[in-house]
Amino acid sequence: MRPLLVPLHRWFGIATALFLFVAGLTGAVIAWDHELDAMLNPSFFHARTDGPPLPSLEVARRIEADDPRLQVTYLPLAAEPGHTLQVMVWPRVDPHTQQPYKLDFNQLAVDPATGAIQGRREWGAVSLARLNLIPFLYKLHYTLHLPFTRGVDVGTWLMGIVGIVWIFDSMIALALSFPNFNAWRKSFVFRVKRGGYPLTFDLHRSGGVWIWGLLLMMAVTSVSMNLANEVVRPIVSRLSPLTATPFSDSTLAGTPHPGKANLSRERILDDARRIAEEKHLSAPPGALFYATTLHTYGVGFFTAGNDHGDGPLGNAWLYLNAQTGRPVGETIPGEGSAGDIFMQAQFPLHSGRIAGLGGRIVISALGLAVAVLSVTGLMIWLKKLAARRRKIRAPRKAPRTAQAGKQTAERAEPANRTHHAERVEPTATPR
């Protein structure tokens, strides 16, 4: 098997090295996305005025009244003390052109006490400006900022496929690291004193062995993040039933009825509170979003500032039809089948938030380790490639060297005979 596994590991590694290098470095940074973003852009995150906050639903109404071109699609229902509301918006359709209005922003920072807009930005824009840096890195992490092509999210698919290749390559790497029982100790050793190529090789092999379980977990969860509906859910559903949501089953999505408007946010929120009481959800409503293409509202339940879902399995969400208010799905941490809980754990595992602050530290360090493994793997391949090229050139030089030696010997032969004759002549002549 080894003659087959070695080239597979080599080419899998070469094919994914650059992508994993970028994903590793950006992942190490975005493990702290909220904190870094707030540090870089205090005016976007910290409210300018003190005072009792306005109701978030009133803030949304004012935003839409001041700019009829847009609609609020994500609304935090409470903000941390001293922080702005981070509101997401989406362009409405221009009735004259039947095309969406052109907006150069999709996120607003709103002072919760006054409803004043403190800042605007396009979250995920290709920009290294301070205001856009962290969202740029976040989106680079999972899409490489590649565009949609014929309705296909190329970047998301590409990074998902890289994750699949990474899973198989992790299995191959483990098999190659332990070729036999007697060699297992070598796979855990770092030859620090020797340095150079031996240390580079050990950083790649032994480094990968020490954290192999974490690397495999990261590879699996990366596929779940990018290709959940396309790959992971169909596989998991064969082992355990999964509860459908509008995001996994389009038949549950709302169907717009001509002439019938969506329910108000107030009505949706009241319905969601009633359902939450029936399901004994203890956390208050923390955010409300509207999925325009699915005609579905989602209401999340968490305290202010916990929108990232710190904790074992994230936050609870209820999904309701935008025009009828009918429940069309839910995600409640720890509830459902084994498959449901597995899917709930994917983002907390991938982000490290499943273990709180310590988990995020581990994930940040793991991102750096992935980048190191990618670089050392390429270094090893380049060194072996140079050695193979020297080996290929060596036979071509050998005949030339042998021919040159033969010609030199032939030219030297007469002189050798003369020299030999001069040495033996005196003894051959009688005195």
TrEMBL record:
It holds the Pfam family PepSY_TM. Residues 392-431 are annotated as: Disordered. Keywords: Membrane, Transmembrane, Transmembrane helix. Residues 408-425 have a biased composition (Basic and acidic residues). The chain crosses the membrane at residues 12-32, 157-178, 209-228, 361-382. This is Putative iron-regulated membrane protein.
